[in-house]
Every structure is written in C-alpha cells, then in structure tokens.
Amino acid sequence: MHGFLFKKWRWLLLAILGLAIIGSGICWWQRAQAAQQFIQSKTPTFFFHGYGSSRHAEEHMANAAKRVGATNTIIWANVDRSGKVTFHGQIKANAINPIIEVNYENSRETNYHTDGQWAFNVLSAAKQKWGFKKMNLVGHSMGNMDIMYCLLDHPHSKQLPKLQKQVDIAGHFNGLNGEDEASSKLTADGKPTVTNRFYRELTKLRTTYPTGVNILNIYGNLQDGSNSDGTVPNNSSKSLRYLVSPVAQSYTEHEIKGSRAQHSKLHSNSQVDSLLINFLWGK
Prior knowledge:
This protein folds into 2 domains: about 1-35; about 40-280, Rossmann fold (3-Layer(aba) Sandwich). Strand 5, helix 4 and strand 6 (about 160-170) form a beta-alpha-beta unit. The mean pLDDT is about 95. Helix content is about 40%, strand content about 20%. It has 9 helices and 8 strands. By secondary structure, the protein is an alpha/beta fold. The protein has an 8-stranded mixed sheet, sandwiched between helices.
C-alpha cells in the first residue's frame, strides 16, 4: 500500500515538474519572440488621458502592448489637485519599454497651462526618480494639450527626458466641433486659415519644439459627412502638422474610419493599438 502511494506521489510530482518546465519554456520562447519583434529599451512611455477621464482610458492601449510582449511593466502616476505626483508600482532593473499611465484627479481643468505644468511635474519627477534620459509621449483628446503645453511652457528643459516619439490621438489643437475655427481649411503647409487663441499660442512650438522627434498623428472619421470623430473635426487634428513640421524628424498621419473611429472609442480601438505599438516599439 505504501509503495503504491509512493509511486502515485512520485508520478504526480514528476508531472508537476514537467508542466513547470514546459511553462518556463513557453515563457522563454515568448520573450525571445518579443525581443525579435520589438525594441528592447529602458525608455518609458507616458500616457495622458482626456477631459473628464482617468488613467483607465489608457489601460486598453497599455494592456495591448503588454499582451504582445512590447512591454513587461505598467505603472501609474497620480497627480492630485495641487499638482503633486505620486507613483504607484515599481519599475525594476529588468523593465522593458515601461509604460506610465498618468491620472489627473482634476480631469476637468481647462487651463491648458495648468494641465501642461502637471504633465511637467510627472515627467520631471520620473526623471528624478529613475534617471530616464529619453521618453515617449502618448495623448488622447485633451491629453494632447497637456503634452503640447508642457513642451510650450518648458522649452528645452534639462529637467525633462529627451523626447523621442510622440503619438497624438484625437487631438483638438484648433478646437472642437461647434467652434468655427476648428473646421477651417488648411493651407498647403497644414496651417488653419482661421485659428483660435490656443492654437495661436501653440505656434511658438514651430521654433521651440524638441528636434529629432518622430510623430504619429491618429484621428477618426465617422464617415457621416461631418469630417470628424463626432467631437473633433479632422482639420483640427491635422493642424498639428504645421506646429511641429519645421523641427520634427518625421510626421505621419493615420485616419481611422467608421463607427469605431468615434472620439472616445479611439483609445479602445484595436487598429489604434497596432499602429501605436508598431510605431513606438516595432523593429
């Protein structure tokens, strides 16, 4: 009887050990595949959400990157109403392409200079804490204004990591639907024929925007005749080109079409996920 039980437990232990070895092998294979497909970098990517939103709007994109092996680390940074930054999670020494989801407690702040200062607080605090030399930035909706006003108000700041890549999703650089300027025609170089006061402020970036940055501008077209994503006219999103083209290393636009191109669905769109992942980390 004891011999039978001993054999039974021995085979069970061997089965468990075998499964563990197989599991380790699969994990190693997945990491090896990811290393072939994606850049293996310590450069962080910061995600900024839109108006009235939170870091949860960024989770779909961040988790998509983790699923395919483009990153192995996702943490988040909270910005309270006074602009104080608190990081949640750890970026370990073996982190690959770490992602930092930014959360504004006051997500309805409409003073873009304040929003930009909060972005600066996050980026500079991350550099101080982890010593980052470079960074990527991703914005959805008003998150794009957080980024642009941060760069506008802190040009060439040594307190920030060097910007490498920027992804703008559904940016309203020259206003929203219902505002006359937002749908105005663009000249050959991408400048709106009529601009709002915020866009006029941002034109300073034509000379102060960081050099050598690769930019991907994604916008949605519902194809319902509005030439918009339901919230932002396409020409308002596309007006980014005029602001950055004099100094950017590259600038690429991509239009998402159909019902999934609706403004608040763009950050949960598999096509956007693929574009973003390949642009930021693809080899």
